[in-house]
């Protein structure tokens, strides 16, 4: 599935991931391939991408959670996510 993470200043990430874990108002939620369409607000926390690797152009924005799994995190203050047809856009600050 394709995920794009945008801030007012720059594109944080654009590429293929296997899933994404997001900080929602009622707790974290996981979006996986073929997830139903969703629009949701996000609170402060970490956006975690589950991907084999991240392009070097975007790697500077992410922290690798651990060496065993391919989980990359990006801290946000708030935001919105829209996901439909295996494409997601995360607008955040």
From TrEMBL:
Localization of this protein: Endomembrane system
Domain spans labelled ATP synthase F1 complex delta/epsilon subunit N-terminal: 1-54
Keywords tagged on the record: ATP synthesis, CF(1), Ion transport, Membrane, Transport
Topology relative to the membrane: Peripheral membrane protein
Pfam families: ATP-synt_DE_N
Record carries keyword Cell wall biogenesis/degradation: no
Superkingdom assignment: Bacteria
InterPro entries linked to this entry: ATP_synth_F1_dsu/esu (IPR001469), ATP_synth_F1_dsu/esu_N (IPR020546), ATPsynth_dsu/esu_N (IPR036771)
The keyword RNA-binding is assigned to this record: no
Free-text function comment from the UniProt entry: Produces ATP from ADP in the presence of a proton gradient across the membrane.
Entry similarity comment: Belongs to the ATPase epsilon chain family.
The protein, known as: F0F1 ATP synthase subunit epsilon
UniProt source species: Chryseobacterium oryctis
């Amino acid at each position: 599935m394709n995920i794009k993470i945008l801030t007012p200043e720059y594109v944080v990430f654009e590429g293929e991931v296997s899933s994404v874990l997001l900080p929602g108002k009622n707790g974290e939620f996981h979006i996986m391939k073929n997830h139903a369409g969703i629009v949701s607000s996000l609170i402060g926390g970490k956006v975690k991408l589950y991907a084999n690797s991240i392009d070097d152009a975007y790697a500077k924005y992410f922290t690798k959670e651990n060496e065993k799994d391919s989980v990359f995190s990006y801290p946000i203050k708030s935001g919105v996510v829209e996901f439909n047809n295996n494409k997601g856009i995360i607008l955040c600050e």
